[in-house]
Amino acid sequence: MKVIINIIGSIGHKSLKFIANIGNFFLFCLSAISWIFRPPWYFKKIIFQVIDIGYFSLPVVGLTTFFSGMVLALQTYNGFTEFNSESTVARVVLTSITRELGPVLTGLMVAGRIGAKMAAEIATMRVTEQIDALSTLGTRPMQYLIAPKIIASVLCLPFLVFIGNTIGILGGYTIAIFKLDFNPDLYLYATIDNLQWIDLIQGSVKAATFGLIISMVSCYFGFNASKGAEGVGYATTASVVVSSVMILTSTYVITAMFFG
Amino acid sequence: MNKNKTKKTILNVKNLKKTFGNNVILENINFNLLEGESLAIIGASGSGKSVLLKNIIGLLDPDSGSIKINSTEMVNLPRKDKENILLQLGITFQHGALFDSLRIWENIIFKVQNQQKISKVNGRKLALSIIERLSLKPEILDLFPSEISGGMQKRVAIARAICGNPKILLFDEPTSGLDPVTGSVIDKLIISAVKTIGASAITITHDMASVSRIADKVILIDNKTVSWSGTPKEMMTSNNLKIKEFIKTTNPKLFA
């Protein structure tokens, strides 16, 4: 009997802790968003973050989307050959990349590269008392540390997704032309003909949302880190896992909003 | 004694209580810091010294009690007013807490630069004048904190704390993790910093030699409250069991 009570107690305790964490996360998000709109704005820090997130993420985003576009073209062709529908390859590659693969793969890559970096940086500052020092030196940590990261992430992700989409479509084109012997003009015409504004808008909305998710989650785990090096490790891992799960969940919600 | 009566109280802590959940960390904490006075707070690890410091510098809010800085009540003071008063404090943290991404000169002038926009040239000049006062080498100005030793980092942290001429300096275990020679250098820097800018000082430490060198007054935090107070001289000759035990366990050489 005592064992059962202990198990129920433990489950209850963990559930309450989980709910409290969700509450704390939303309070953190509200506070962070409110600091974005209050002066002073640290433009130098925002520009630094834009370069780090936007420019230095380009290689990894480009590589991922390029190979995904190639794989997509190959698989689609293999699947559609049975139905003699090779001409639809361009359309499938375009739609898949712009609607889903481009934003999601870019989001996941940025979560791994930038989210982990943000969480580790802020967590290290927390455990080495640098955040406490900021507060005592006339600076508000939310405004100085968190707000520039959120602004830069929300601004950069749509551009990264746009570039990622273009490179992904180029990957599909490369396979279609050089391996599947498609006519280049026909493939290009089919791609442009099937391009729809709604796909680009939806991709941008997803990208901005992912930027918000990655920066908020990473900053939250970093800001609330404890227990020295172990705490930094936990914050880094948790930020990547939670960001990735939230990206995959929110992509469904946004798709359902646009096309559901 | 008469000399102290003419001095103004710059910090007054009264009946301060702090709990974390059901765990009482501090209660009934009372002490004063006079203008130009150097106070040392001693106590075992986990006795709540750093929690007390965090309450004074506004990083934690006490459950009850009062903290007055220059006669202004800090508890429940609006955020903006609190921030303005806290600018009168200069703090060094246990591990220096220098900003990794900034150069040494940028670390030193951080507070001043936030209050008033100063050019890079003037910022470097200001940082140089401070490190010269603390006998630090000018060559370190353009380095990053990771490029200098732990002892040097603590000295830079002191330079950052005194930049802007604060009224109260707070040092959290400034000599911990340092060899006795470097510890003695840090003590001299603290004495010099306090004298140069005419500030009052609070130092949290375990090091009795350091207490004797830098403090005018000592308080012992034990069993959640201030259990003893006096001068360093009184401390060394005190028959108070808690003080004797503390000195014996933290500095056994003094009893050898």
State the share of residues found in helices of chain B, binned by percent.
Answer: 25-40%
Strand content bin of chain B: 15-25%
Largest beta-sheet details of chain A: none
- The number of helical elements of chain A comes to 9
Structural write-up:
The complex is a heterodimer of chains A (260) and B (256). Chain A has 260 residues and is mainly α. Chain A is built from nine helices and no strands. The termini of chain A are far apart. Chain B is 39% helix and 25% strand. In chain B, strand 9 and strand 10 form a beta hairpin. The chains are: A mainly alpha (260), B alpha/beta (256). Chains A and B meet through helix 5 of A and helix 5 of B.
Describe the secondary-structure layout.
The complex is a heterodimer of chains A (260) and B (256).
Chain A: H1 2-36, H2 43-55, H3 58-81, H4 89-127, H5 130-136, H6 141-178, H7 184-194, H8 197-223, H9 228-259
Helix pairs in contact in A: 1-6, 2-6, 3-4, 3-6, 4-6, 4-7, 4-8, 4-9, 6-8, 8-9
Chain B: H1 2-6, E1 9-20, E2 23-34, E3 38-42, H2 49-56, E4 64-69, E5 72-73, H3 79-86, E6 89-92, H4 104-108, H5 110-115, H6 120-133, H7 150-162, E7 168-172, H8 180-197, E8 200-204, H9 208-214, E9 217-222, E10 225-230, H10 232-237, H11 241-250
Parallel strand pairs in B: 3-8, 3-9, 6-7, 7-8
Antiparallel strand pairs in B: 1-2, 1-4, 4-5, 9-10
Summarize the structure.
By secondary structure, chain A is mainly α. Chain A has helices at residues 2-36, 43-55, 58-81, 89-127, 130-136, 141-178, 184-194, 197-223, 228-259.
List keywords for this structure.
heterodimer, A: 260 residues, mainly alpha, 9 helices, 87% helix, B: 256 residues, alpha/beta, Rossmann fold, 6-stranded mixed β-sheet, 4-stranded antiparallel β-sheet, 11 helices, 39% helix, globular
